[in-house]
Amino acid sequence: MNQQKSPKNSGFKNAAILSGIAFEMGIIIYLSVQGGKWLDAEYQNEKNIFTVIATLLGVAISIWVVLQQLKRIKY
């Protein structure tokens, strides 16, 4: 017979995936900001250009990660 997953089980799985997305986005962006600050301090850059670039890159990466995870969710 064809066994289908109950909606209850897939709902819990989807909720777990969605709740993890916010933490992953926060960690990626936080680490990119810290990396940019470190680069600015290391190269004695007063305009914080590395922080800006790293932050934008971190946001782009986190959005890409979110989109990849949303593709895995079964409705």
UniProtKB/TrEMBL annotation:
Keywords, sorted A to Z: Membrane, Transmembrane, Transmembrane helix
Source species, domain of life: Bacteria
Spans traversing the lipid bilayer: 12-33, 48-67
UniProt key word Transmembrane: yes
Protein's UniProt name: AtpZ/AtpI family protein
Organism: Flagellimonas nanhaiensis
Organism phylogeny: Bacteria, Pseudomonadati, Bacteroidota, Flavobacteriia, Flavobacteriales
